[in-house]
Amino acid sequence: MNRVVAAIGLGVTVMGVIAALTTLQPELLNVLIPIILITIGGVVAASYKLSEDWGFYMLLWGSMIAVLGVFWAIAQYYPMYTNTLAFLYIALIGLAVFLTGVRS
Fold it and tell me: Does residue 70 carry a pLDDT above 80?
């Protein structure tokens, strides 16, 4: 039952965030999306102590979401490095998948 309630809460949260973001101007979206990604990633990563089984994955993938937000923010101010940041993020995804496979 707890998982069902958690899934419903997460779905409502996602719908609310998407609905709020659709009402904003593009300039404001470029500021808020990195903040949202960093916040969500930080919350997921910080909740790694909640579960022994899933703690490592929550920390790893929550950190990946936060890093995506940081890279997005950097790309806003330094657009010439967008490709470099994208390739670095692909490398980080590969590393995260590798660590997930090693851990499981």
Answer: yes
